[in-house]
Model the fold of this input.
Amino acid sequence: MLAVAFAAAAGVAARAASLAGDHAAPVAAAGAGGCLLVLAGGLAGWAEGPAWGVAVLAGAYAGALVVGPPGLDPWAPAVAAGVVLAAEAGAWAAELRAPIRLEAAVVRTRAAFLAVVAATAAAVGLVLIAPGAGPELAGPLITAAGVAAAVAAVAVVRTMARRA
Amino acid sequence: MTAAPTIRLRAYPAICAALLLAAVGLRRPELVAVAAPFGLIAAVGLARSAPPEVSARLVPGELRGLEGDRATAAVELSAPGRLWQVDVSLGIPSGLASAGGPPRRAVRAGPGTREVEFELDCERWGGFVVPARIRVREPLGLREWSTAAAAPLQVRVHPRVDPLRDAPRPVRTQASVGSDTSRTSGEGLEFADLRPYQEGDRLRRVNWRVSARRGTLHTNLHHPERNADVVLFLDSFAESPVSLDLAVRAASALATAYLQGRDRVGVVGFGGVLRWVLPSTGRAQTYRVLDSLIDTEVVTSYAWRDVDVIPTRTLPPGALVLALTPLADDRALAALAALRARGFDLAVIDVSATGRTPASAGELGDLAHRLWVLRHEGLRARYRRLGVPVVEWDGREPLAGSLAQLREARRYARTVRS
Done:
């Protein structure tokens, strides 16, 4: 789980650094700091570590947006998903440092929860930035939102059919 | 149930607020997208947060076992609705150990009841209280609700002892039927003597061979089989846990052996706290005695106690008093001397483990150890002069060996007295 958290944090840090252009070094350093906090929290069972880590990562991303190009970042939904995934997976990794036996159903449920949270974060981010995006971004985003809505509708119908 | 906020409840609203302020200040809508999931989790989580309806109890409420056994206990969870994640944990005291992993499990529960099983290794004898706690995690993890199980698990672990074939026999027997051969004559199996026929003697007791030889009728006399009273006197003044461990192990083996022979067994725990079990017999008494033994603990006390504080009924006349003592505390020594003076059939098993206890480092340590050993030898000699047999048991050899020495010493002592 710590690997998932670290990978998500590293992805966000990499996006922030790539967005920062000429100021990539300080942004990458801040991102690395955030990654290290997530890692330290997971390794030491320090529950606050991942929270501080994602706060630093979000700060690095904000800094990258300031010093980067003025246009809307099309990767913002992915960054939102990555930040939330790093926070949740990091917190779970910190919990797991205390010795505990997990039932398979709990692992499955929490893994599914992580996936749903990340997907929801991406979807919400998409919805929020789509109106402000230009036609070159809004088109694919709205198409993706339509596909997601269709998939969600099919899932809802399937669930209702099962319960009936 | 007690609610405790998690780091999410403190951090997520703060991260969301900070990112939204940054979005407004920097005019970057991307930060709203990053902030929104944290705000959503906090808002939805708080809206759905409510104390979970769940109760927990331990089944069974009490466990018994022997040292080295593995016991299974379960925490029964009852919940009317589905619970996302319940962490069930046991507080394992020293002397027990969790088998097959940590004593904490994360499970899903409800609706209805389900049992979460734990296996416990009984590592040492004793009476243990094992509390259980449950912690319910909300789906979005903003709060955790915790509570304790209705009643803790009581675990009673009896010492594992080698069965004794031959325990020291009391000099005097009692009135009830048992497995000891009484010194008196009566109905029994063991041949005692011959005497001339008297009116009322049963025909089947006539010894025809002797009658034919002597010309007059003679009948056989027998020793009746009777039980005996045995009181185990545990000196728990001493501050050495080794001595207490040895005393409890020896007392358990002796009590089991005597009770299997239908003798009446009682216990007197003579220490900072006075405990006793009245002499009785039967299977229930076995558990009463063993429970009393494993509850024995050293309680430091400076109050003087003598034999008068022991209830009279715990020391029936003619009882064999087997004292298990490290011969360390003057109060216990004085009480034993008083018992001997009152005519009790007394034998002492010294559990001081002098042979197992190494001297401390240095010249002074060596000197202190030699003085301690000398003092013990002096005390043993003093008891022997009083006619009380004393043997030492340090746990390295089987108890049966020390008891054989005790039987020999008692046989010799009786010969001298007669």
Observations:
- The mean pLDDT of chain B is 85.
- Chain B touches chain A through 36 residues (CB under 8 Å).
- The longest strand of chain B covers residues 112-122.
